[in-house]
Amino acid sequence: MAENPLLALPHADTDRALVESELLVAVAAPTEAMTEMAGHLLGAGGKRVRPLFAIAAGGCLPGADGPAPLDVVRGGVSVELVHVGSLLHDDVIDEAVTRRGIESVNARWGNLRAILAGDFLLAKASEIAASLGTEVAGLLAATIGELCTGEVLELDDAYNVARTEESYLQAIEGKTASLLSTACRIGGIVGGLDRPDIDRLTEFGRVYGMAFQIVDDVLDVIATDEQLGKPAGHDLVEGAYNLPTLRALAGPQGDELRSVLGAPIEGEAWAQARALVRQGDAVDEAIAVAQAYVDEACDLLAPFEGRPSAAGLQGASRHLIASLEAVRATA
What we know:
It is a single chain. The protein starts with 11 loop residues before the first helix and ends with a helix. A hairpin with a 2-residue loop joins strand 1 and strand 2 (about 100-105). The protein is globular. The protein is about 70% helix and about 0% strand. A two-stranded antiparallel ribbon has the order 1-2. By secondary structure, it is mainly alpha-helical. It has a single domain (about 5-330), classed as Farnesyl Diphosphate Synthase, CATH 1.10.600. It has 16 helices and two strands.
């Protein structure tokens, strides 16, 4: 599978190295134990999509042809810390034992310490944002609120076989798209872009985030544990009925699928539900929705034609679908 186009941008290696350096600085705590817990998932890697989007958004400024300014990188790092902090909290809620192919923080240190480590990361993110100005600080605070709201919307619909697509889209806009939108907006603000361009990049991040989550939800249905780096089919277990599942519930196999879902499942029932979602057109329909968001994302970047960073963001959008299809070909 081809490399994500964002990673092929000029100065990408320099920018990524600075992101990793700033992440390590951010998670350094007064105690060794907190530093270890807060940095646990960071040490397992990660795509760093949010910092890269902040950097690429800042790079859409004409003349911004060198490595990313430190403040743009730190803006992206603040969003990544919110993301990782939310993962720690999610793993407690889900009682997850692995994350990114390693033992989860809650499995290794317990729920209480995992929650505190997640809180620490949110606090460090807020501290960085505050250093970048009141607008960035307010934006990040509002985004944390949107993230929480999206998660609550999903919890409210747990095991609800009557969940609507509208409710699903509202939830993923809060829990996923808001962070990517904010990463682009912070990159644009700190990078010094004009307001219309900042707004356009903000909307790009939102639309990309919708596609990103739908692709992730399709992968939850079709990929293996090894491909995902986490347990596959987890949404079915947790009752978070995503777009492929909702489309399957509305399709010919809907009655049979409804008879299996609606409560926690495991083992044979889980395998049956996952197989039913993979039958018919549900997966194809979900991919088509993701593709529509990708097309919209690419169109939003058209005014930045000629900027390598914008081309990288467009390429990253198309890469979402290409990566999904690569996994699907091996399923």
